[in-house]
Design brief:
alpha+beta, Thiol Ester Dehydrase, Chain A, globular, PaaI family thioesterase, hydrolase
């Protein structure tokens, strides 16, 4: 399958999830802004639904944003009839995100996509372009 077809397939899955109220786009507000070969951009508008006990955006929500973006970047480079699952996720939190902050932007890029494993990196920036968090992942690549 070509990269363009793989991106088209991913876009259709994301749109279906939003339309049917399924997935992190619906539940947390993680939205896809850009899809390209080995690169994705996802956004998140902070709000009460993502709060931790300190009334800032929960670290797990930021981790989910990065995991989604990195997994999608990997997906764009996988051949047809191939899936992935996250084996390892590493996140470095740089600064807190207030619940009334502007939109967050997470850009992810692939580092390596092989037959058995794939790796990617991501960075989240706030509305003022300040780094909020960065991380990496390793995914298991599976043919079915």
């Amino acid at each position: 399958m070509s990269v363009a077809k793989r991106i088209e397939e991913l876009r259709a899955l994301l749109d279906k999830g939003l339309a049917e109220g399924i997935g992190v786009g619906h539940s947390l507000g993680v939205m896809c802004a850009e899809l390209g070969e080995g690169r994705t951009v996802y956004t998140l508008k902070p709000g009460l639904g993502q709060a931790n006990a300190m009334l800032t955006v929960h670290g797990g929500v930021l981790s989910t944003l990065m995991d989604t973006a990195m997994g999608s970047a990997i997906f764009t480079e996988l051949p047809d009839a191939t899936a992935y699952t996250t084996l390892e996720l590493k996140v470095n939190f740089i600064r807190p995100v207030a619940l009334d902050d502007g939109e967050l932007r997470c850009e992810a890029t692939t580092v390596h996509v092989g037959r058995r494993t794939a790796t990617a990196e991501a960075r989240i920036h706030n509305a003022e372009s300040k780094l909020v968090a960065h991380g990496s992942c390793t995914c298991l690549v599976q043919s079915f």
